[in-house]
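Example record

The entry below shows one chain as it appears in the dataset: sequence first, then structure tokens.
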Amino acid sequence: MAKPPQIACPADVTVTSVTTPSQAVTYTAPTVTEGAPPVNTACSPASGATFPLGTTAVNCTATDAMSRPATCSFNVTLKGMSIGAKKYDAIGDSITLGENGERTLVDTPNAYPTKLQFSLEESYPGQGVAVLNHGDGGKRIDVILANVRKFVAADNPDVVLLEGGYNDLFNDCGNRPPTSAVCRETINNGVPIGLRDCIRKSREASRNVKFVFVMTLTPPGPVPPGAPDDRRISSDAITQTNNRIKQIVAAEGAVLVDVYPLFLGHEAEYTDTDGLHLRPAGYQVIADAFFAAIQKTVPQTPLLRFGIR
């Protein structure tokens, strides 16, 4: 008669630097010897299953043709990360606020700060992350600068997220070639210097500010025939302003969040019917871009305790 089956589980598995509440884990199958064939082996949770942060026991059983079982177990441990910035001030115009193309609705659930907070909370659960939306629709860069002074001093955030310049360019350039003196001044100095001052004031207003992120401007989208509102800005004015923004951000040691190329080829999908404001998909792209930049820039340390939702 065949000997009863013998089963040996793999060594405990530890996965570090996990930035989500759970993650799929693949492990080595247990080793089975002896037993009357066929010998069936099953483990729970199975290899490839999704495991939560913390330690989960995996129980394995081998059963031979004579219904004789053999069991073993091992642990899968997921070690999460603590992010080094908990409070974020998002300051800008209607693109931060979350207005749609009709400019009659502030779609807060789909605003990029709302979506960004969701991503941060999902990746760093229970860590008290807060993204405060200080978008101010229709405002030029000088008002955004005043809002930086106001809100950063009051909130003492760890991080400031900046966006702005659309209203300056819409009023001074419109959808015309950027050749007028007032348009050229806005492109070369008005918007980029305004954002430079926003970066500097973010740091001056609160010693708590560790990082400042600055977003580039999105390209104009198509406007359907007969649309009641056309707020497109010249593509040349957008790209030239973005080039100046990149120079300013680099010179000031801030973090660039370059969303412009992410919209190219998707303008109709991401931009609403006025050619300027965004659809939910567009706001999601911005949130994802800020999230990726934050994960790349803000220090993270292993959690000593694992908060499992």
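Notes for this example: Residues 19 and 124 are 6 Å apart (CA to CA). The domain at 6-82 is CATH 2.60.40.10 (Immunoglobulin-like).
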